[in-house]
Amino acid sequence: MGLCESCCLSEKRRRRRQQQVSLQQQQLLQQRQSISQNAPAGEAGGVPAFSEYSLADLKAATGNFSAEFIVSESGEKAPNLVYKGRLQNKRWIAVKKFPKMAWPDPKQFAEEAWRVGKLRHRRLANLIGYCCDGDERLLVAEFMPNDTLAKHLFHWENQTIEWAMRLRVACYIAEALEYCSSEGRPLYHDLNAYRVLFDKDGDPRLSCFGLMKNSRDGKGYSTNLAYTPPEYLRNGRVTPESVIFSFGTVLLDLLSGKHIPPSHALDMIRGKNILLLMDSHLEGNFSTEEATALVDLASHCLQYEPRERPNINNLVTTLAPLQTKSEVPSHVMLNIPKQVEAPPTPQHPLSPMGEACSRMDLTAIHQILVATHYRDDEGTNELSFQEWTQQMRDMLEARKRGDFAFRDKDFKTAIDCYTQFIDGGIMVSQTVYARRSLCHLLCDQPDAALRDAMQAQCIYSDWPTAFYMQAVALTKLDMHKDAADMLNEATRLEEKKQKSGGVS
């Protein structure tokens, strides 16, 4: 075979490999999109499916229910104890501990918890599990790391909540209530500023704990009678209209920045003393028109007769048009840093590569890839003697320069050299794609990093490193549920290879 024929053969193989990899990558993307679109409600947005937890797991997560882990104590506005905890997979949780024997029948408690656990919404701090063990009755929910509305409104240290954020809180909580009502859970027990929590992005969420009765007979609704719906005082029952009344008290909190008895607030509103009602810490930085609309809505919610109050749908339609600064993230308006967590790690032990990826430790990943070199590429390419052309030598030289740059942490140069190698098309190397993926991550290019990690998977479908690199890139893109799936798949493949005596 002559030199020209060898070059033609190399070019044909290059095109065929490029077509195969491109087709495989498209298939992977389609599969991932299909999985995401058809994911069960319990897995939406990275929220785990509702399940039963053991008491041992919750004790381990909360330091045996240590006082140091308490985030909310029994009191005027927060009945029962709530602890923060961290499971073995590193997921943070909130655990509500009911008083002993509040629910004597464990079956009734479990049934009530399962009904609430079916709800999944971005405006809720969702319920993810429960525990019945002896006299213990516990609920497990997503943990919200940025405190309560009460803390930001009444006990702030650096700055009060700005007006646009207060409008956002009102609208988001109304949306949460509207969703719950549409799902057949219109009752919410003791809605107040302590039930509104802020997630890692600073977005307000409604605690799922208020959807669950405090006991089998629903007693323990509120301990502050000044703000309790009047019909509850009359007959001891919570109705959907009672929730609207409580929502009105939250609107008063947002308007005034302090606790005001509804009767006193209504007197001020009737006397047209709206400016006296407004929080002085806002220093006049609010729209009078928007404030008037909010005051008007609050007064309707606080009507003595339940039938005169608006329904939940009216709350959303009134508040949605008042939203401003929609382009500004909540954490910016609250002046808090956005928290980024690594994806939850699998339950089984992790390899050094798995540990580095779960910690998002790019330096450690770099060290591992340097040490591993091209061990996993063996057998990927089978080339005839005629294919060792000058073009082939140029490609290998480009890869060599990329390796030196990668080792020396000159990641932009490494990207250029590895790209030259890949574009040559004669050889394929999952390791080159993995290395270029890390280079893209270190250059703050997570989209490109994800594409390279997927290309590595196309070349070697059972290579754990390809899945690990996808997990890191997906985390950078805030796709935490997909990142957790990739971590689990990578560890599964590693275990499989270890059992078969293969490399990883």
Automatic annotation (TrEMBL):
Keyword Ribonucleoprotein listed: no
Keyword field contains Lipoprotein: yes
One Pfam family, short name: PK_Tyr_Ser-Thr
Cellular location(s): Cell membrane
Enzyme Commission no: 2.7.11.1
Main location: membrane
GO biological process, one term: brassinosteroid mediated signaling pathway
An MF annotation (GO) of this entry: ATP binding
Membrane topology designation: Lipid-anchor
UniProt keyword list: ATP-binding, Cell membrane, Kinase, Lipoprotein, Membrane, Myristate, Nucleotide-binding, Serine/threonine-protein kinase, Transferase
Top EC class for this record: transferase
Family matches, as PANTHER family: SERINE/THREONINE-PROTEIN KINASE BSK5, SERINE_THREONINE-PROTEIN KINASE BSK1
Protein name per its UniProtKB record: non-specific serine/threonine protein kinase
Organism: Acorus calamus
